[in-house]
Design goal:
Number of domains: 4
Shape: rod-shaped
Radius of gyration: 57 Å
Number of strands: 26
Structural class: alpha+beta
Distance between the termini: 164 Å
Strand content: 25-35%
Number of helices: 6
Largest sheet: 9 strands, antiparallel
Length: about 500
């Protein structure tokens, strides 16, 4: 049932000041903001009302009348709201300034009641009559105005002082101007450094630098397509589609067990995030990757050094094609899918062509081999002091199979079907050449030296053969001896007979 609103003005004679009733003055007292019950017997309703005004005669020191009514909340009922301003402001919807104005209006308009003490040097507004028991206190004096929730002696958490200082948990304003804003923590929805087209905008966890009203730098974080927190710095765009066209992006994945990050230049945007045309990626595990859609150029004015503990590996379309590394014996190897190029001090600096695992030597196919044979490179040049023919005749040419061909033979034998001919060494290549008996002293022969000895032996053989033939059968002059020195017969000119027509 709705209760009617009513105000009552009660004129009375204060009996507490009379001699007859002075002993009963403490039985009942009514003060400002006290609630009393007014009975309307004819209407059958009771209305609770508060003391909202009074008239006092300071000469006679007695109250003349009081006004009571079911008015707005008193000061003592709402003063607690002052201590909750921070919570209310943080939860207010819409315009913060409008909400703050409405909140302040509500607090002030409902702040009736309390006890006012006026002194020559100060004014006190308290929640109790006694200064000693008062908790909520407003004090105004020559040095300023302040509010304390802990009594007259403070501390005053809200204050305006004569030296130009304002002390408050929150200051809400339409425009706040000043040369310096200084503090441990400044909280707000958005900070903008200038009203021009060039400014810095700070909003929540984002910082944006504007030039000509366009975002040139973005600093912040967001959740990527994998729902990971990604702190990001964007140069030349914002955290939207403007950052997807040639912006420099520095990012870090911070929610993963292994932290990683990178820097790149963007070329577009898809469902998984930004696409990089070129980027440098690195992880907490010590891995790094330089990636580019087109070309990577490394340029140095003096030298360029690459250091690696294991191997340099080369790939094409994710397929391994080569490696450069050092073997356990200290050899430098270029490893290819089916062969190895090795440089070893054990072979006196000779380049070796071996199988991919380095177990055996491999062959070479070439259109020509040219040996550097200039006199400029040689010294102590002299004729051969031994019989090249005799040495060549000492060579023992053998036929053999290479050990690295034997696995192929075994594989063919394993795959042979029943009834097929037996597979022998004829199924693998047969080679011809020298077999070195003293492998501890040397492990190969020089083809150029061997060919040179063979050439010298052939020359020696031809010379000896010609000399032997000269001894057995002197060379005869060419032609017919009978007709030598005979005058040759002259031919007659041919006759031409004219035919008759």
């Amino acid at each position: 049932v709705d209760q009617p609103k009513a105000n009552y003005n009660v004129k009375f004679q204060e009996l507490s000041q009379t001699e007859e009733y002075k002993d009963y003055k403490h039985l009942q007292s009514v003060y400002m903001a006290d609630t009393v019950t007014v009975e309307h017997q004819e209407d059958g309703i009771d209305i609770k009302a508060k003391v909202i005004a009074y008239k006092y005669d300071p000469i006679k020191k007695e109250y003349l009348d009081i006004t009571i009514g079911n008015f707005k909340e008193s000061f003592t009922d709402v003063s607690g709201r002052v201590d909750l301003v921070q919570e209310e402001l943080s939860n207010m919807p819409g315009s913060i300034l409008d909400a703050a104005k409405a909140n302040a209006t509500s607090l002030i308009n409902s702040g009736f009641g309390g006890h006012v003490r006026i002194y020559p040097d100060r004014i006190l507004i308290m929640d109790t009559k006694d200064e000693k028991s008062a908790k909520k206190v407003w004090q105004w004096n020559l040095n300023g105005l302040g509010y304390s929730s802990t009594g007259v002696n403070g501390p005053y958490g809200t204050a305006i002082t004569s030296d130009g200082r304002i002390v408050a948990d929150f200051i809400t304003a339409g425009t706040l101007s000043g040369n310096l804003v200084q503090g441990g923590e400044i909280t707000g929805a958005t900070l903008r450094t200038s009203d021009s087209v060039n400014y810095v905008n700070i909003s929540k966890q984002f910082i944006r630098l504007y030039e000509s009203s366009r975002t040139r730098v973005f600093v912040g974080y967001y959740k990527n397509s994998r729902n990971e927190i990604q702190p990001t710095l964007i140069l030349g765009g914002d955290s939207d589609s403007t950052g997807a066209n040639g912006a420099i992006m520095v990012y870090q994945f911070s929610d993963t067990s292994v932290k990683s990050g990178g820097i790149g230049i963007t070329k577009g945007l898809d469902g998984n995030g930004y696409l990089n045309a070129a980027s440098l990626y690195f992880s907490q595990t010590g891995n790094a990757m330089l990636d580019a859609d087109k070309m990577i150029v490394l340029n140095a004015q003096t030298d360029m050094r690459f250091k690696v503990k294991d191997q340099f590996r080369f790939y094409r379309n994710d397929n391994w094609i080569a490696s450069i590394g050092v073997s356990s014996g200290g050899d430098t190897d270029i490893v290819l899918p089916n062969a190895m190029i090795r440089n070893s001090s054990y072979e006196n600096g000779y380049i070796q062509i071996k199988t991919a695992l380095g177990s055996y030597y491999h062959g070479i196919i070439a259109s020509d081999f040219k040996v550097s044979s200039k006199e400029t490179y040689k010294t102590n040049i002299r004729s051969i002091a031994f019989s090249a023919l005799e040495k060549v005749m000492e060579w023992e040419i053998k036929q053999y199979n290479l050990k690295n061909d034997i696995p192929k033979l075994y594989e063919m034998r394993m795959n042979r079907k029943e009834g097929e001919p037996t597979i022998t060494t004829d199924a693998i290549p047969t080679h011809y050449g020298l077999v070195i008996p003293k492998e501890a002293e040397e492990n190969g022969v020089g083809l150029y030296g061997m060919l040179s000895q063979l050439t010298s032996a052939f020359q020696e053989y031809v010379i000896k053969t010609d000399a032997r033939l000269e001894e057995l059968e002197p060379l005869k002059p060419k032609g017919n001896i009978k007709h030598r020195n005979r005058v040759k017969r002259q031919r007659r000119p041919s006759r031409h007979v004219k035919r008759s027509s």
